[in-house]
Design brief:
Strand content of chain B: 5-15%
Largest sheet of chain A: none
Order of helices and strands of chain A: HH
Number of strands of chain B: 6
Order of helices and strands of chain B: HHHHHEEHHHHEEHHHHHHHHEEHH
Strand content of chain A: under 5%
Strand order of the largest sheet of chain B: 1-2
Largest interface: A-B, 33 and 52 residues
Structural class of chain A: mainly alpha
Number of helices of chain A: 2
Number of strands of chain A: 0
Oligomer: heterodimer
Distance between the termini of chain A: 68 Å
Distance between the termini of chain B: 64 Å
């Protein structure tokens, strides 16, 4: 009985956690929130190259 | 332009999510091995009480696993959003162990968790014991791959910088895997997890005895916890000593700051057990020192010096100057990849490139940095002394306390007097949170002591953060705090509920 109740509680907690993680991801971390970094933008950031310098 | 507030908030967000996640990890690590020990005794003796112990502690393990699983994924969310330059610069190396952890170790662990809970009536005793052992192995393998990734951040090996792609690229997976820092961190961390699991079993069992219930169950559980806990606590200290040695070889500034050692001492250096570091006067007041100890731990010798903070700053000024040469060479190589002179310059000073990048905080024209800027960049290589000094001492003090506590209960168990001293039982009960405190302090010492770098000596934290607004980080940070706090409340609620129910109320009496 207790084991069945625990199983229900854990499934509910896991479902709520999954929803919360999906919500956090969609709201703050989805691809639209991620800057695109490549060699050129890294060079601009780290080496201070201006776009004209970037090859 | 980089927003310093966004940098600090991104660090706070990542640090908090790591600390929250690490509340679940050590208990999973420790309980998985304790389950394998208890079930082994069950298989060898056939006595039902050992089956009940495996089932009950397994049930509490299951609650912790369910609450903790996937809580680390939020850190991976942040790599792409808050730490995009970091992800670009070192993703080629750092990403591999993370991916292997997810693909191999985590799935191994998750598969055997399922078999552990649902396989009791479907497998032979030996078959189920094998599953439990593989569950413990999978759990520990997860930790291994994460600590290989983290060890690389502390001591980057097996990689080189490519000026064309502007990133570090993997040259030797063997070196990354067998990185001595990663190996030391792994054994030290999993041992700390075993201490946590043992303390959990000891404390909950002490509560049962104080309540006068489940006496045989509790006493057997305490015997296992005290024995395994004592061995693990001794391992933590011995392996911590080994970590001290590797830190002294690879992160000299971290060691000097932990010791608040301002100047290089005449070898062998003493260890400051207690004192009040004065960061302005650069002395440690009322210092209680153990002669030779730091020298022996850090150099394994009596005649080698352990460099002090001020001496390391002077050395780092030279490395910043070398970094300027490397930085200039990269500019030339990006304009002409075949420039032989620039290639030679970069080869000679590649190890100092990160130190040159420290100047980006003060000037966009790194190659024209002034002596004052170079000096300031060298001073930046010193992490804050007070948080590291005190965190380390609390962690070490707790480590020795665990040895004493487990030794006491080991002795009581040998004398069959586990339930004869309520005061000792209360001590065990109230010691329950301390392994988590020690583990979090250890994590803090490792990560805060690495500052100002994300990758030690290679990439400054300041340059690792994406160009994002402080406001967006505050909002996501608030979301994380709410998420993790809720999880912690649910975990504690379920744990307390099923501890109160005990083995018989939870329906696992064997």
């Amino acid at each position: 009985m207790a084991a069945r109740r625990l199983r229900r509680e854990i499934i509910a907690a896991l479902a709520a956690k999954t929803l919360a993680l999906v919500f956090l991801y969609a709201l703050f971390f989805s691809p639209s929130h991620q800057p695109r970094i490549d060699g050129q933008s890294a060079a601009a950031h780290l080496a201070g190259e201006t776009p004209g310098d970037i090859r | 332009m980089i927003d310093p507030q966004a940098v600090d908030l991104s660090r706070l967000q990542f640090g908090l999510t790591a600390l929250y996640h690490f509340l679940f990890v050590p208990l999973t690590l420790g309980l998985s091995v304790l389950l394998a020990i208890m079930e082994s005794v069950y298989v060898m003796t056939g006595r039902a009480i050992w089956r009940a112990m495996t089932l009950y502690w397994g049930l509490l393990f299951g609650i912790n696993f369910a609450m903790g699983v996937a809580t680390g994924i939020t850190m991976e969310f942040q790599f792409g959003t808050n730490w995009a330059y970091y992800a670009h610069y070192v993703g080629d190396i750092f990403g591999a162990p993370l991916a292997i952890e997810g693909l191999m170790a985590f799935f191994l662990e998750a598969t055997f968790v399922g078999l552990f809970f649902f396989g009791w009536d479907r497998m032979s005793r030996v078959g189920h014991l094998t599953v439990t052992c593989l569950l413990a192995l999978g759990t520990n393998l997860s930790a291994l791959w994460i600590l290989i990734a983290n060890g690389w951040m502390q001591h980057p090996v097996g990689a080189s910088f490519n000026p064309q792609s502007m990133r570090m690229e993997l040259t030797s997976f063997y070196d990354v895997f067998f990185n001595p820092v990663a190996q030391d961190k792994f054994v030290h961390t999993v041992s700390a997890g075993y201490v946590t699991g043992s303390m959990f079993v000891l404390s909950v069992s002490a509560w049962f005895l104080l309540q006068g219930r489940n006496r045989e169950f509790a006493k057997r559980s305490m015997t296992v916890a005290a024995s395994f806990g004592l061995a693990s606590a001794l391992s933590v200290v011995v392996l911590g000593d080994e970590s001290g040695y590797t830190v002294s070889q690879n992160q000299k500034m971290k060691l000097a700051v932990i010791e608040a050692m301002w100047e290089t001492q005449t070898p062998p250096a003493s260890f400051t057990v207690f004192g009040f570091p004065d960061t302005q006067a650069r002395v440690t007041h009322l210092a209680l020192r153990v002669p030779w100890a730091t020298g022996l731990i850090a150099t394994r010798s009596l005649d080698q010096a352990v460099p002090g903070v001020d001496n390391l700053v002077a050395d780092n000024e030279k490395r910043v100057a070398g970094g300027i040469v490397a930085y200039g060479a990269i500019d030339k190589l990006r304009a002409n990849p075949k420039d032989a002179a620039a290639q030679a310059q970069l080869a000679a000073h590649a190890g100092d490139l990160g130190y040159g990048l420290l100047l980006k905080r003060y000037t966009d024209k790194v190659v024209d940095a002034t002596p004052a800027q170079i000096h300031q960049a060298a001073l930046d290589t010193v992490p804050d002394v007070l948080p590291l000094f005190w965190s380390f001492r609390f962690m070490v003090g707790l480590g020795f306390y665990f040895i004493a506590l487990f030794a006491l209960f080991f002795w009581l168990s040998a004398k069959r007097r586990l339930d004869s001293h309520p005061a000792y039982l209360r001590l065990a009960l109230w010691s329950l949170p301390l392994p988590w405190v020690a583990a979090e302090l250890g994590w803090f010492v490792a990560e805060y002591g690495r500052q100002p770098w994300t990758i030690d000596g290679v990439l400054p934290t300041y340059l690792s953060v994406s160009s994002i607004s402080a406001g967006s980080v505050i909002t996501s940070l608030a979301g994380f705090v709410l998420f993790y706090s809720t999880l912690a409340v649910v975990e504690i609620y379920l744990m307390v509920k099923y501890i109160r129910l005990g083995p018989e109320g939870s329906g696992v009496n064997g």
